[in-house]
Model the fold of this input.
Amino acid sequence: MKLEVVNIQGQKTGREVDLPDDIFGIEPNDHAVYLAVKQYRANQRQGTHKAKERNEVTGSTRKLKRQKGTGTARFGDIKNPLFRGGGRVFGPRPRNYSIRLNKKVRRLARKSVLSAKAASGEILVVEDFSFEAPRTREFVNILNNLELSGKKFVLVTSDFEKEVYLSSRNLKQCRVMRAGDLNTYDIMNTHTLVLSEGAVEKIKNTFAN
Done:
């Protein structure tokens, strides 16, 4: 598949980039995509939740009333989970939610979503650009030229472009990331995938190894 390269003014440059069929033209594997998204979202969980159980609540251990002869249920101390301020039964504890996924499955998932984006025409290739200093207004002008204003998109660069990142971080619908950090969830969770020319080559080299 070949796509035309546009400049930051939204005009065609007359150049084309070749998107390999083994990366952008495979039959999507839905289950691999599901596993990759599940792993990504699980790994985002902090797992710092914690509730005090009976042995962790501050309070007296004195038995509130005698065991038998009261006509009601037996009670222990004031830290009983049935009482207000008592401990919680089987409360949440800090834990690690991250899951592991084979490298080949993660790679298949990324190829699947890249192929789906290419098939639906939601990939745009733009020439490499950068700023001398962070300028959000200039970045917004580029978005208007590329007809991306109001759309949710991910701009993929070949390497970390600090000025481009700083120019875009105040925009709600925009995200800038390196080609090496591209993941299945971010590709799916966007309307348009904007690739720089350098990012295309980076993706080719990544999947070629």
Residues 2-45+101-208 form a domain with the Ribosomal Protein L4; Chain: A; fold (CATH 3.40.1370.10). The longest strand covers residues 12-18. The beta strands are 2-6, 12-18, 123-126, 153-157, 174-178, 192-196. The CA atoms of residues 154 and 175 lie 5 Å apart.
